[in-house]
Structure prediction request, 105 residues.
Amino acid sequence: MVLERFYFHFLERFPTLMDVATSELNDVLKKWEWLGYYTRARNLHNAARQCKGVLPTNVHDIMQLSGIGRSSAHAIAAFAYREPLPILDANVKRILHRYYALIKR
Prediction:
């Protein structure tokens, strides 16, 4: 339901990173409604403007964008540019940290 009612409408309005970059933040936030975590929309808008609507092609430059950490940068490079980089979900990281913390006791 969220996909059909909100996510696809967001993508219709902003089909490219350049469309996000050239839009006003309030327009991005309005279309983001019901998708949750407005910080993500703000980071998306900031990142799009930082790179002027053109996604960097290397992990180092991707990581310089607002709201993008190592894991997200690896995922972007892996999917967008087929870079052979590790991607580790935050939930998996948490489980592994807890598991190894128990072993060390």
Notes: The helical segments are 2-13, 17-21, 25-32, 38-50, 59-62, 70-81, 90-104. Residues 90-104 form the longest helix (15 residues). The chain is about 65% helix and 0% strand.
